[in-house]
Amino acid sequence: METTIDDQSNSDFMQETARPQFLSVLCILTWIACGLMFVTTIWGVVFKDTPEEQYEQIEKIRESSPEMADQMEVAIAAQEGSNQVLATAINLLAIAVSAFGAYLMWQLKRRGFFMYIGGEILPYLGMFFGGTAAMSGSFGTMMAFAIGVMVVFDMAFIIMYGANLKYMTK
């Protein structure tokens, strides 16, 4: 079969714009994580325990660890009212920005990488609105561990996406 110049230039063009499989996997994993975070955020808002139920749980914890119960009370108090609304809004915005950044990277657009980074930084800002008074003792240690795990995963994905920047255009 005879290959024409048009067929060859079309195949060259297709090879230049092909998305690497690794980038595709990263984007899909990001969308799955964003979907799960969206569902859990909404779930936490809709099915939040009443203050009475929260304090009952704290009293059960107080029997085994009074210090942890005190820290949980401080954390719950910091998450009430406008702080909770602001933290939830920041988390939902972060999820949307991260998912949209992954969408742009799926289309091989470099600005998606920077949007993704912004979306990954936003939740840490939201944590400051949630209060840092409960970040001491054993409860604070658990929170610090959870935040540390988040940082590790965020950095790993940022590095992996960064390794794919060479395939992205402006």
Report on the architecture of this protein.
This protein has 170 residues and is mostly helical. It is 80% helix and 0% strand. Helix 4 (66-78) crosses helix 7 (137-163). The chain is elongated and about 60 Å long. The relative contact order is 0.13. Mean pLDDT is 81; it is low at 11-15.
Write the layout of secondary structure elements.
Layout lengths: L4 H12 L4 H26 L4 H14 L1 H13 L3 H25 L4 H19 L7 H27 L7
Task: Please bin the fraction of helical residues.
Answer: over 70%
Counting DSSP E segments of at least 2 residues, the number of strands comes to 0
Shape: elongated
Distance between the termini: 38 Å
Put simply, the count of helices is: 7
Radius of gyration, CA atoms, in whole angstroms: 22 Å
> What's the SSE pattern?
HHHHHHH
Spans of at least 5 consecutive residues whose pLDDT stays below 50 are 11-15
* Average pLDDT for all residues: 81
Q: How many strands, what sense, and barrel or not for the largest sheet?
A: none
Structural class: mainly alpha
Portion in beta strands: under 5%
